[in-house]
């Protein structure tokens, strides 16, 4: 039997950027808040002195263990899905701070065009430009409305950046100057300039200088230590919730953190259409608890956000056969349908590629969003072209061989040793869209440790998926040629989604918008059907922007926090439903 | 099904000579003595007089070679059968052979690295989703789908490799010509019909073997491979450091002798 606890104002499920932000804001506003996190109570100390490629990059120590909980995957709606069993193919954040601790830090805002992509596409190119299979939707708020929330997140996180010449003018400058520039970045930028593009230093969640954020949290300057992506930071130099919003929340007595608290259900009262709390298991003891709350906030990443709604029977499950239902619809994300590009091998130049930082890099956005004309193109949107210098350790560098080279034996050894520090890669971070046939629901076969069904992903490429990648690869090649690589290899365009969930860019399923026919939450991420339930994070993206997602998740979390506070005051829906033309 | 006929590692044990082992695994040829490995395997032949028979032919020395220091951790803790381990060592050496550029898998300690990995949560698939139903044929598409764990796959695959060596080349895997060893490895790599196994695809086993070998070459020496950081020296990787702010803008390649995790952690309890 579940033990019933005292009611609080807000219960937050999941403590990454999304949950951390809502918790900090509600704690600051004096609300009684409980934060529930399934994983361990990780501290910065857990990441001091553990720079180890095998442990973190190859064996994924920091990611969720899949023993009892993963996702099943398939391409076609009548296929049997199989569970993704190993972390090589399934990387989900775990523990306090979530994936927001092991992220790399590349920080982009989405474009004005992207927030109103349906309207603006029709306006400029006509309705026929939108492929039939695509559920192209506006987000229900504009870039101008998002700007203050972006700014708020960037200042909390201490992002180090410089103005992208193509981007809208910023209200305030970036909180920190850009990271240092290495020779590989210089080479990329010079080549881009020669081609008439407008390169800039990627805005980074790695501190270029010591920094104190508006909440008084102190971060240190990045050391370019390179053990960054898939690792936690030794130095409190990465923008992550452990260094920022979680300590901010914890400074307040009205906030309580409970780790190893695995939430299994939202408790939902069908009559009043209210979420009355959540049910969770203490993973240390197995004891079940019911935590009642005035407002329930799901911030447990796209997978769990979707799954908890389905398990709790909240909202109507999307069914691709009838195209009815809303939860699970417009599941999207960047998989092997993004990040294609070229690899350049330099015979006469060696780079210090073992050094770097998660988001150290240079980019152009000349081929992002609608920054270039699409009249004669057979796809919508675009993305950045990036060169990153994450810092690569030995196992990773030993993979720098040309495609004809055998990947074992004497020839492999010779070639891999030669090219370990001579290969640069650039890629296109293109938009990925939502299609009627892509969605998530509960798997009929595979279960978690409590016997609850796993989440099932059904995903395949749609119109434009390959075309946009081909376009990007071509642009990347032009740049790499100008960079003077002696040998250039294009990534091959994949035939189909390969069931690899390795980049953390999985989104949608509980999407935002203005019309309850095509969206599950309004532009405060408040559920249309359930006033006191907010579903926060990438699950709200109607389609995936042409850049990494986290600043947009951070900004939406600030927006949602504002919504929760408003709701606690007025107890009302925060937006009016509008009928839009069917997506 | 009785498998008795197909247990070449038992059948051939008696004919197995230490000299052949040294010759065919390539340990003897490059001048770098993987004392640790030999120490383990040699006793298998009832031979304990390793030191007076240095394979480089220079005769005995009483000094412990550098690469033998700390070799008390070089003992099999996962593979029971020496034949599996000898097959593993020989195969790893073909994947990353010793040559002019530097040591190969055996002198780098890779076989022991793999043995220890198999003995860990990783070898037992401790963090994988393991509920059935399983369909191992789907692994290339969906990632690991076997019912077998990694350690079990290693055993099955190595046994099969040695079986093929005996059937087709009339010797144990570690005894036959390197050319023939490569031929067998290629059969596994291409999932050839000749090397079908029950429960795992041959190409899946091969990539596991290949990738784990490379891990053993380049992972931190804390795991038992990359002995004396020789792997890192070859690939000019300096190991974990506080940071590189000092050189990040430098145009020239900056080379530094490697440091291991132990040094980074201060080597203290
Ligand atoms: C290797 C890698 C690199 C990345 N690099 C970048 C980058 O450079 N730029 C970028 O923009 N994005 C990047 N990302 C993506 C980024 O990590 C995510 O967008 C971001 O972390 C999402 O934040 P979140 O708060 O929504 O989710 P998370 O940070 O994942 O937090 C969710 C939390 O919920 C918890 N939880 C889940 N289920 C339950 C439950 N049932 N009960 C209780 N708690 C639960 C989890 O344990 C976790 O702590 C990267 C991702 C990966 C994997
Ligand atoms: S590169 Fe910088 S931000 Fe990343 S882990 Fe190292 S010090 Fe921290």
TrEMBL record, chain A:
Keyword Flavoprotein belongs to the record: yes
Signal peptide start and end residues: none
Gene Ontology MF: a single term: oxidoreductase activity, acting on CH-OH group of donors
InterPro entries: FAD/NAD-bd_sf (IPR036188), GMC_OxRdtase_N (IPR000172), GMC_OxRtase_C (IPR007867)
Gene3D superfamilies listed in its UniProt record: FAD/NAD(P)-binding domain
Entry keyword Transport: no
Domain Glucose-methanol-choline oxidoreductase C-terminal: 438-556
Domain Glucose-methanol-choline oxidoreductase N-terminal: 190-332
Keywords: FAD, Flavoprotein, Oxidoreductase
Membership in a protein family: Belongs to the GMC oxidoreductase family.
Protein name: Gluconate 2-dehydrogenase flavoprotein
UniProtKB/TrEMBL annotation, chain B:
PROSITE patterns: TAT
Protein name (Swiss-Prot/TrEMBL): Gluconate 2-dehydrogenase subunit 3
Keywords: Membrane, Transmembrane, Transmembrane helix
Domain of life (superkingdom): Bacteria
Pfam families: Gluconate_2-dh3, TAT_signal
Listed transmembrane segments: 21-46
Keyword Transmembrane: yes
Biased composition (Polar residues): 61-71
InterPro entries: Gluconate_2DH_su3, TAT_signal, TAT_signal_bac_arc
Region (Disordered): 48-72
